[in-house]
Design brief:
The complex is a heterodimer of chains A (197) and B (351).
Chain A lengths: L3 H11 L6 H14 L1 H17 L1 E2 L6 E2 L5 H4 L7 E5 L2 H10 L5 E4 L17 H10 L4 E4 L5 H14 L5 E4 L15 H9 L5
Parallel strand pairs in A: 3-4, 3-5, 5-6
Antiparallel strand pairs in A: 1-2
Helix pairs in contact in A: 1-2
Chain B lengths: L1 E8 L7 E4 L4 E5 L6 H13 L18 E9 L5 E9 L5 E4 L2 E2 L11 E4 L5 H4 L2 H15 L3 H20 L5 H40 L6 E6 L6 H15 L10 E6 L2 E2 H4 L2 H23 L4 E4 L2 H4 L2 H9 L6 E5 L10 E6 L2 E3 L1
Parallel strand pairs in B: 3-13, 3-14, 8-12, 12-13
Antiparallel strand pairs in B: 1-2, 1-4, 4-5, 5-6, 6-7, 9-10, 10-11, 14-15
Classes of the chains: A alpha/beta (197), B alpha/beta (351).
The structure holds zinc ion (ZN).
Chain lengths: 197, 351
């Protein structure tokens, strides 16, 4: 029903995560209406990002160069490393502006059902980093899922011989939220992880 | 809680219908194969997004339809209203709406208690342990906060562990981690289930005494599959587990022991005792759920008259005046109780 070229664009867009067939149509039509200049800018940005972005040599977060902005920043505390599952978690921490240390992106979690084993994660590189630098604390910030929890345990065992302090991210109540609306599991964990005032 | 009205389309053999339900007893009658159980199942599924007959929810959809839609209007304790829409789909994801908002996960359903007694429940006494665990977990989900997600974690961990031990060269540290997590969660599950049993046991005992006219004494007791530390036992069993590809210890191997007059039901109970035992357990569950949630469960009794003798049924219905009850039977039974009747013929509900 659409011309082939437009349908081709819709199909490509619909392959992207989070974009259903309807959104793909809407985006494609809007791109066509905006004209060739806008489209070229978009195409350039796409190609630019895809060719330039690569994993950071140190932490495997996304980067334009050898080192990501965090690893390249001498003001970031090298003594504390926050271990996360994916690149998006780094962005979340950075938006929160609450962490002044550095990151290490695992690139997943241990998940036998999906065939992800420890060798598939950036674990060796983490051990290497810990060996070659003066890291004093590792914060395990994998998610609170069954696999995220197991991965945190795995890391804790792996790091035990090193004597480095290992902590686990507390799970808690969202700030500014009504306690009424917090699910009971989160509330229970928040209670377990309470601290003295 | 009371289901005030129920609308259904595309559900099994039933023609599209809309019925208002009474707060008391409603009898659904009709000859066999007309759709009585289907109607009960529709009521059950509309407030639980489950079936008491199958875990394959696609089978609820009429063979000529793409999806099945159930709508119910509910009045909760204190007069609060809730409108539920359940859509079971052949090709799409199932959908649930509560008061016009899409809900995800099972958690919301823990507020809408329903207890069903069906002929297959005799299996509670004689069937596999999983039937008794499922029963306990069904009750636990209503009466213990966080119960459903605890069970979900246990199931997920077990699947991960099973995958690991069946893989060609399992990573030992991964196995250590999944074993210790599964053992930990199993201990938690066992504790929660034991807490449910501790509450259920005295209620079931007194209900059964009343139902049997003071003749029989029943008791239930939770049996863990391990002694001492689950983690240690799992660790000791690992070699054997890897060889067999199974997991020997954990909450998936636990059982609920049922006793009648001090003897195990499994080997000593008669068919009739199995029926009434199951019945007492279900009623005790309804009772416990009501006490804990401050909400009366909807009670569904499929083919109860062929399960229990008339005297027991009369005593039973008499003892359940405050629950909304839906019963099925082939005819209008000769029980001197006030009830509303709905006839069902070839899938058509006649008010
Ligand atoms: Zn970096």
């Amino acid at each position: 029903m659409y011309p082939d070229s437009l349908q081709g664009l819709i199909d490509e867009l619909a392959r992207l995560p989070g974009i259903g067939p309807k959104s793909a149509q809407r985006i494609a039509l809007s791109v066509v209406k905006r004209g060739p200049n806008d489209a070229r800018r978009l195409a350039d940005a796409l190609v630019d990002a895809v060719t330039k972005v690569r994993p950071c040599r140190e932490c495997f977060s996304l980067s334009d160069g050898e080192l990501c902005p965090v690893c390249a920043n001498p003001a970031r505390d090298p003594a504390i490393i926050c271990v996360v599952e994916g690149e998006r978690d780094v962005l979340a921490f950075e938006r929160a502006k609450a962490f002044s240390g550095r990151y290490h992106v695992l690139g997943g979690v241990i998940n036998p059902l999906e065939g992800t084993s420890p060798e598939d994660l950036h674990l060796k590189e983490l051990i290497e980093r810990l060996r070659s630098s003066a890291v004093q604390e590792v914060v395990l910030a994998t998610s609170a899922t069954v696999e995220g929890e197991a991965t945190a345990r795995y890391l804790a065992r792996l790091l035990e011989p090193s004597g480095i302090k290992v902590s686990r991210l507390a799970t808690g109540v969202p700030a500014g939220g009504d306690l009424d609306y917090v699910d009971e599991v989160t509330l229970g964990m928040a209670l377990e992880g309470r601290r003295q005032l | 809680m009371i289901v005030e009205s129920l609308r259904a389309s595309g559900f099994r053999n039933l023609s599209r219908f809309e019925i208002a339900l009474d707060p008391g007893i409603t009898l659904i009658f009709g000859k066999n194969g007309q759709g009585k159980t289907n109607l009960l199942e529709a009521a059950y599924a509309s407030i639980s997004h489950r079936s008491f007959r199958t875990s394959d929810l696609v089978s609820l959809i009429n063979e000529n339809d793409e999806y099945s839609r159930l709508e119910s209007n509910i009045t909760l304790a204190g007069g609060r209203r809730a409108d539920l829409v359940n859509v079971f789909s052949r090709s799409d994801r199932d959908r649930v709406q509560l008061n016009n908002r899409i809900v995800k996960g099972r958690k919301e359903f823990d507020r809408f208690p329903v207890v069903a007694f069906v002929p297959g429940d005799v299996e509670l006494s004689r069937g596999a342990p999983s039937i008794r665990r499922d029963f306990l977990d069904g009750v636990g989900a209503y009466v213990t906060t966080g119960y459903s997600s605890l069970i979900a974690s246990a199931e997920r961990l077990l699947r991960q562990r099973q995958t690991l031990i069946r893989s060609s060269n399992p990573d030992i540290t991964s196995l250590d981690v999944f074993d210790s997590r599964y053992a930990e969660v199993s201990e938690q599950v066992a504790m929660e289930r034991e807490a449910v049993v501790a509450q259920l046991d005295p209620i079931a005992g007194s209900i059964h005494r009343w139902l049997s006219g003071g003749e029989e004494k029943i008791s239930i007791c939770y049996r863990r599959s391990w002694e001492g530390s689950c983690n240690e036992q799992l660790f000791k069993a690992r070699k054997e587990d890897i060889r067999k590809g199974t997991t020997s210890y954990g909450c998936h191997r636990d059982d609920l022991a049922l006793e009648i007059d001090g003897r195990p039901m499994r080997s000593f109970g008669s068919q009739g005792q199995a029926r009434s035992f199951a019945f007492s357990l279900k009623l005790a569950a309804a009772n416990l759920i009501e006490k804990t949630l401050n909400e009366t469960p909807v009670v569904i009794l499929d083919d109860i008259f062929s399960e229990l003798d008339e005297e027991r049924v009369a005593r039973l219905l008499d003892g359940l005046p405050k629950y909304q009850i839906l019963i099925s039977h082939t005819t209008i039974p000769p029980v001197g109780l006030e009830m509303r009747t709905l006839e069902i013929r070839q899938g058509v509900v006649r008010v």
